Fold this protein.
Amino acid sequence: MSLKARIAALIEAQGPMSVAQFMTIALLDPKDGYYPNRQAIGAGGDFTTAPEISQMFGEMVGLWLVQAWADQGSPKNPRLVELGPGRGTLMADILRTAAVAPDFLADLDVVMIEASPAMQAVQADKLRGLGADLSWQAQFDDHLGDRPLFLVANEFFDALPVRQYVKTERGWCERMVTTKDGELTFALAPVPVPKPAVPHGLEAAPDGGVYESSPAATALAEHVARIIAAKGGAALILDYGYGEAAGFSETLQAVSGHRFAEALYDPGQDDISAHVDFAALAAAGKRGGAAVFGPATQGLFLANIGITERAEQLMKANPDSARDLLSATERLIGNDQMGLLFKALAFAPPSISDMAGFAG
Ligand code: SAH
């Protein structure tokens, strides 16, 4: 039975499901879900991420992490956690770069948070032989709260499930996935949600306006912030999304073979994601007791921490690659490329007042 048919059967048995539940099944179903089964990332996959564009991205992130560690007095036994490490490229570049700080690497515990066993295998392959003490977990949990926590997440939060609410004459109704003539389709829940589900300030939304929230994302961000506030460390979250208050339109999107597709059409075959609400993540970080930096645009963040200088250095060393290095830099920081749409957000302990890359 196809994943679509299984979802339809589930809806027939239990009633309509939330967009969040649909996303979770479509992305992570162990048998037919997207991440466990598809070669998602890279030129031959459905989308290309920043670390796959250029090693410079991971180098910059690696230097940022080492700097944050040094600024906090080089604490012993740091832990480096990556959420959703994809093909392992970012972690490989971080570990290579962190060799500038042997004391950081010396007793570093590296934990990869990856839900898909297939992706875990790809990552293990890539990172074998790098000498780091690596382990894998399907989920972030409280066991990761016993050491200074240095955490990075690139294009992870956009994969976390969102719930959607639509403004109607009756109030805010949750958008559900249901079936019609054997196809999956969206329908509004008939009864509006109780007020607290939708934050204040949304009264101005027009009829038909959509509010998206990702309780999974904000709960995780708050958890990470709480550990960093208590034990030290730093988190760097990079993703595409909105920095200011979100508009009233939906952002759920499906991508297949580098093109947009229809989210409900073929669950398990297409990547599904939603814009990250950075204002909500920043608020979650503050609730967790961390100092919060940004969101800054990815373009400004990378430029501030020296990606252009790094590109020039690499170009001098490899004049033949100059053209590729220039175009990679442009893709990562150009305003009409990833520079503006993508954002960076950081957490640190409350005693920290400056973080590299985040101007005043
Ligand atoms: N950071 C990588 C990959 C981004 S794709 C890069 O920049 O290239 C998202 C990654 O998160 C994939 O590895 C996917 O399998 C994993 N993932 C998605 N949802 C997850 C979840 N809920 N828990 C853990 N891992 C998840």
Summary: The mean pLDDT is 93.
